[in-house]
Amino acid sequence: MRVLVTGSSGHLGEALVRVLPGAGHEPVGLDLLPSPHTRVVGPVTDRALVRRALEGVDAVLHTATLHKPHVGSHPRSAFVETNVQGTLTLLEQAVAAGVSRFVFTSTTSTFGRALTPGPGEPAAWITEDVVPVPRNVYGATKTAAEDLCALVAGDEGLPCLVLRTSRFFSEGDDRPDVRERYSRDNAQANELLYRRVDLEDVVAAHLLALDRAPQLGFGRYVVSAATPFTRADLAELRTDAPAVVRRHFPHYPQLYAERGWTMFPAIDRVYDSSAAQAALGWTPRYDFAAVLARLAAGEPVRSALAEQVGAKGYHPASTGPYTVR
Asked: CA–CA separation, 1 vs 209, rounded Å?
């Protein structure tokens, strides 16, 4: 298939453009920023440009977005323009071009305030059934874009799958206190227990979604590394996460101690990606158990694809990935 990949200069877009040819597909990269992986340069809101980019295209992988790190540097109207109007433009032009399937990259940030349990409550168990309560304009506009996908899928018959991806960026944490207390690899290994997914696994989920979209029609799926936790762990995760992790992985403290790593003292939410695994036939490879095996073997905690794409930041001119005004 010929596949339009929006956001092709970003983390996921670049990864998809790299991998698609090996899966037998021809990628057409579109991004506001030029890069070696971008064939069409311009905004997703430009209807004429999108129409030209869709010529001869069979499928769309829509990853282009303003992200959470842009909340401090861009006005809310820019989020509405890119994340909502841009998605609508792509959907309508995809229908007009006769595209056979559409995959929208959303985010677990859509759940927003639903991710944070109250004092004394157990950690939140996050599935597709949790009702989003957006925390910021990023979450609000991604939720609105998801709803547009559902609307167009229902009205026009365009098979459309929404993948709510958890964290997959290589950059250090956006919270200064986490960056100060944990190395990047330590923090991201911890997160694979409950709120992170490796870039290679995200790409695999998108390729499977391309294949499954015509059969599924429409669906929203949480895409995160397989968690070892169960609902029975949720109360203790809020008070003593290391003890819970130790029960599941008795050997982890030694591997961590050898590197001077520590586990987070508490975990407030757990993403359950079992629905995506079942619907897409997706098996994420890079979970916490895999990281421990890689540590024992002296290998990098991230996949080769994640290492290849690397960290990009989120601003063309920046003093760091989370530049604000």
From this structure: 14
pLDDT at 306 exceeding the cut of 50: yes
Q: How confident is the model at residue 34 (pLDDT cuts 50, 70, 90)?
A: very high
Q: At residue 258, does pLDDT exceed 70?
A: yes
CA distances from 149 to 49, 83, 101, 304 (A): 20, 12, 11, 32
Task: Measure the CA–CA gap between 128 and 321, rounded to whole angstroms.
Answer: 29
Q: What is the pLDDT of residue 323?
A: 35
Please give the tally of structural domains in the chain: 1
Q: What is the pTM of this model?
A: 0.94
The count of C-alpha atoms lying within 13 angstroms of the C-alpha of 172, restricted to the half-sphere facing its C-beta, is 14
> What is the domain-level CATH number for residue 119?
3.40.50.720
Give the Cα separation of 94 and 68 in Å (integer).
Answer: 26
Residue 240 belongs to some domain of the structure: yes
Structural domain harbouring 90: 2-309
Tokens of 112: 């927003």
